[in-house]
Structure formats: C-alpha cells, structure tokens
Amino acid sequence: MMTLWTTAEIARATRGRATLDAQIGGISIDTRTIARGDLFVALTAARDGHDFVRQALDKGAGAALVSRIPEGCSEADPLVLVADVLEGLQDLGRAGRARSGAKVIAVTGSVGKTSTKEMLREVLKGQGKTHAAEASFNNHWGVPITLARLPADADFAVIEIGMNHPGEIAPLARMARPHVAMITTVAAAHLAAFDDLFGIAREKAAIFEGLEPGGTCVVPLGLEVSDVLVQAAKAAGEVVTFGADEAADYRLVRVDIHGDTTVVQADARGQDLLFKVQSPGRHFASNALGAIAACAALGCEQAVAAIDLGHWVPPAGRGTRERVLFDPINPEQGIDLFDDAFNANPTSMAVALEMLAAQMPQDGVGRVKHGRRVAILGEMLELGPSEAEMHAGLARLAPMASIDVVHMVGPRMAALRDALPAAKRGEWYETAQDMVSRVRHLVDAGDVILVKGSKGSKVSLVVEALRKLGQPVSTEV
After folding, report:
1. What tens digit of pLDDT does each residue of 144-187 get?
2. Which residues pair with 241 in a beta bridge?
3. Are 282 and 262 in contact (CB under 8 A)?
C-alpha cells in the first residue's frame, strides 16, 4: 500500500489528536467500498457516519476521522479526533493541496463538468502523473476528498466544482487554488435557486476567485452571458476563450457527427487542429476544445492533447453508447442505446436530441419495418417558475423533426406531452418505475434509443430495464 498520509500528519492538518500511529493509503466515506488502509471519514448526512466506524475498522480501514469516540470503539482503535468532521476533512483537503507541486485545473459549468474532467484526465495522463476527481465528487465534501487523495508527487490534478445554490463555488475554488480554471458553459440549470441565467453565470464565474497568481481562465464565448464570464475572468488572470464564436481564441470551425464519432476542425490561435471524439455530440466537441485550451495553458503540447482526446469515451450515464442484442446469434436483432440518464436541463436536452437525430437506425429488422429514433425523456428538475414552459419548449427544438417517437417520465413532462404533435407523442408515465414494465413494448430491433433525464427522475431504471431485454455489448472504441 502506498502511504498517502500518516495519522500524525492528519492530526496536524486537522488540529486533531491521533490515538494511534497508522499509515493511510486512501480516503473513504462509504463502508461498502472502503479499501484496506483507507481513512474512514465519519461524515453526518442522511445518517451519522460514526455509526459505521466500527464496521469500517473491522473491514480494514487504517483509521477513522471522528468528532467523538463511536460506540464499539475506544482509544485502543486508530482514530483521529477533531472538533468537526466536515471541517476536519476540509482542512485535510487544504493540506493535500498545499503540499502538492501539481499543476491544478478546476472545471465547472452547467453542462459537461464531469465529461470535461474525464477528457482532461485522459489527455494529461500521457504528459505526467495525473490525479482527478472520482465520479462527480464536486461539492463541499467531494472537493476536499479529491484534494486529500492528491498524491504529493502528482504532476497534474483535475478538480470538478459544482453547485446547487449561490455561494458554493468560491470557497471550493479557494480550496483548490487552480492554475487554470475552466467554465464549460452556462445554461438554465438550478434556476429554482437563482433569479436568472446571469445569476448562474456570476456563481460559475466565482471559480476564478480561487485562481493562483498568474493563472489562466478558460471561458466559453457565444453565450448570452459570456460578457459576465469574461469580465470576471479579466479581473482574476489571463483569459483564453473557446467556442464557435468568430472572436474565440480556440474556435470551432466545423463539427461533423459520423455514427459514434464526432470529427472536429478548429482554429487554435491560428493553428489548424483536426481531432475526433469517440462519442457523437456537438457539446463534446466544444468541451474537448476547451480542454485542449486548458492543457495548453498549463504548457502542454496542444497537438498531442488533440490526439489523446481520441481515446476518451463518456463516463457511464453521460452519453455512453452500447448495443443491446436481443438475439446473440443475429447481431442485427438489437437496439443501440445511449445512456444519458444522469442529468438534464434545456441545453443538454437540445444537444442530446441533436446527437440522436444524427444517428442512423436500421430498417427491416424488427416488427416495425422502419428503424426509429426513440427518445425516452425524464423530467428536468430545479428549473424554477418557468419549468412547464421549458419542458414544452423541447417540442420546438429543430432535432425533434428527426425524432420518430418521444416517451416521457414525470409530472413535469406532461407539458412536453401536450406540446408534441400526435405523430411523435409516445407513452407518458408518472414515474420511471411505471415505465419499466412497458419497455419491451416501446422499442424494436433496429431502433436507436436515447434515455435522458435529471438524476431525480430515475430514468436510469429504464436504462437498466432496456439492458435486460437482451445482452449489452459495449461499443466503446
């Protein structure tokens, strides 16, 4: 086991007290996935982590970060006692960042944070030892965990920063202290907590408050709120822009979607770039170009970064494509499934539907002679007072002309159901669980299926039900 911390070091960083000397190889908040030698952090959320400390130690945890001696434990157990566990974790994250010589990139945005973080991981790992956040570790405990896990000898670190409410991003950015801070885009997400899109933009721009001296801000152009982002960036450091806008430093010239691949032509500060992303979607092209700009700001070779992007595939639930075979003997008897069931807002819905519209179903292999583009859409959450209008507005998106049928989940999706023309209006269900028993009747061999919705809509249940119709086969390249 590589030693990440000792309990003595943790005690110094957290102003706590270690009961025993121990070596720590990782950080965990979940006894279900804890590894031998991990520090178990007894956070209090839906349940009190102190109730699970004994179990964590019995499963091999190296020590536990606690604010009291838990039931079933004693001073004879390896504990680090602190005044407050969350504050202790945050102190440990700051200490991890302080001791590291890594160049740090922080990423935020309404859409594409996690995908862009994973693009950066893929690109940077070929140019040095790279550490990046797991899954969507982007909140008040996810960011300090990521920093606390940062190896002291890492060359690069990629930190994802998210938010649900005003005031969340700045303290996390100051904790991460990035050399490069990137905003993917600003869209109508979490509007229930903000007055308008400009309020969201100001919150996203707060990531620049943590920028290291001499750092670089990577900002999208072509948005309604781009001026807000650029002005905040100029106050913090050097500004590098990207997007389809003519004035962008890194400009999308052409984006072509060919099956599973997006081919991108770009102008990178006067240098022609041609690269591909192994997933269909204009949003992936834009995020990839922003990632190249961020890497170049760190001094990495942008041409090499563009090549390495060809190895990236989306994380599960964020646009991954797979083939589900109904008959393993006959590869034509199946569906192509795009799992994008993790989050949704009007902007990400639009790009996902554009991707679906570019796909080619297979005719003549199913019950229905005509292969179809099928959208299964869960409701979009946290959109505020205009949520009904935003759901109905999906019917007016240009890609809808190429979608054969739309099935819907959730009360808010009733607005879309009523707005769709009868020919495209599929089945609507109150909950995803209600739809699960119907999935075999909603799809046919030859279809291309998109499943997308906010995580709270639970359309991931529909994805799992579709997989169970046959044998999933990954199409990742």
Report:
1. 999 999 999 999 999 999 988 889 999 999 999 999 999 999 98
2. 219
3. yes
Instruction: Tell which residue, 82, 93, 111, 127, has the closest CA to residue 210.
Output: 93
Q: Which residues are annotated as a binding site?
A: 109-115
Residue (of 450, 335, 348, 336) closest to 402 by Cα position: 450
* Whole-angstrom distance, CA of residue 430 vs CA of residue 428: 7
Amino acid making up residue 368:
V
**Per-residue pLDDT tens over the stretch 364-381:** 888 877 899 999 999 999
Q: pLDDT for 383-415, tens place per residue?
A: 888 899 999 999 999 999 999 999 999 999 999
Question: Annotated binding site for ATP, which residues?
Answer: 109-115
> Considering the entire predicted model, what is its pTM?
0.79
For 358, residues 6+ apart whose C-beta sits below 8 A from its C-beta are 257, 280
Query: For the segment 52-100, what is each residue's pLDDT rounded down to a tens digit?
Result: 999 999 999 999 999 999 999 999 999 999 999 999 999 999 999 999 9
Query: Hey, what are 434's tokens?
Result: 């209600």
A 10 A CB-CB count for 186 gives: 26
pLDDT at residue 408 in the model: 97
- Count Cα atoms within 13 angstroms, Cβ side, for 117: 26
CA separation for the pair 81, 381 (Å, rounded) = 39
What is the CA angle 406-452-281, rounded to 5? 100
Pairing of strands 320-325, 471-474: antiparallel
**Is 76:64 a contact under the CB 8 Å cutoff?**
no
Residue 351: the pLDDT is 85
Q: List domains and CATH numbers for the chain.
A: 5-83 (3.40.1390.10), 100-311 (3.40.1190.10), 320-474 (3.90.190.20)
Q: Which amino acid is at 190?
A: H
Residue of 411, 420, 403 lying closest to 387 (CA atoms): 411
**What sign results for the dihedral spanned by CA atoms 439, 441, 442, 443?**
positive
Q: Is 227 helix (H, G, I), strand (E, B) or coil?
A: helix
Cα 133 to Cα 113, 138, 189, 460: the distances in Å are 11, 8, 22, 22
Rounded to a whole number of angstroms, the distance between the first and last alpha carbons of the chain is 32
Question: How far, rounded to the nearest angstrom, does the alpha carbon of residue 265 sit from its chain's CA centroid?
Answer: 25
Distances (CA, A) of 107 to 122, 225, 296: 15, 18, 15
> CA separation (Å) from 190 to 278, 343, 381, 394, 416?
29, 11, 8, 18, 20
Tally of CA atoms within 13 A in the half-sphere of 78 that contains its CB: 21
